[in-house]
């Protein structure tokens, strides 16, 4: 058990939280998925009366959630804050895409994101 500001955390809760932080950093660095903010829920991994197992994912609205042994973590969509001048940000149902102005079917890499 680990002593934190909010009290004692079990080793599995600590590992789950560390996993969530590492995953979010990986997602931000690789820009493979547009998600940023982390929300951690303890207890059973249940959403809309469906039980999910560790390793499974589901969506709570626009938040993508990942199940683990101690509960689940959810990530909110990120918002691009800067991109090349030849590109533009367009809203989607659950976030944004950055695309080339001349070819909106082709994604453009944003310089920075905020979550």
From TrEMBL:
<dbReference type="GO" id="GO:0005576">
    <property type="term" value="C:extracellular region"/>
</dbReference>
<protein>
    <submittedName>
        <fullName>Uncharacterized protein</fullName>
    </submittedName>
</protein>
<keyword id="KW-1015">Disulfide bond</keyword>
<keyword id="KW-0964">Secreted</keyword>
<dbReference type="Pfam" id="PF05825">
    <property type="entry name" value="PSP94"/>
</dbReference>
<comment type="similarity">
    <text>Belongs to the beta-microseminoprotein family.</text>
</comment>
<feature type="signal peptide">
    <location>
        <begin position="1"/>
        <end position="32"/>
    </location>
</feature>
<keyword id="KW-0732">Signal</keyword>
<dbReference type="InterPro" id="IPR008735">
    <property type="entry name" value="PSP94"/>
</dbReference>
């Amino acid at each position: 058990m680990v002593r934190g500001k909010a009290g004692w955390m079990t080793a599995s809760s600590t590992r789950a939280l560390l996993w969530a932080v590492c995953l979010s950093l990986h997602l931000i660095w690789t820009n493979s998925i547009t998600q940023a903010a982390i929300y951690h829920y303890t207890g059973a991994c249940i959403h809309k009366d469906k039980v999910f197992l560790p390793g499974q994912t589901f969506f709570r609205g626009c938040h993508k959630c990942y199940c683990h042994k101690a509960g689940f973590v959810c990530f909110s969509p990120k918002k691009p804050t800067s991109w090349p001048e030849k590109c533009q940000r367009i809203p989607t149902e659950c976030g944004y895409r950055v695309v080339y102005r001349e070819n909106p079917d082709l994604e453009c890499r944003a310089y920075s994101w905020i979550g």
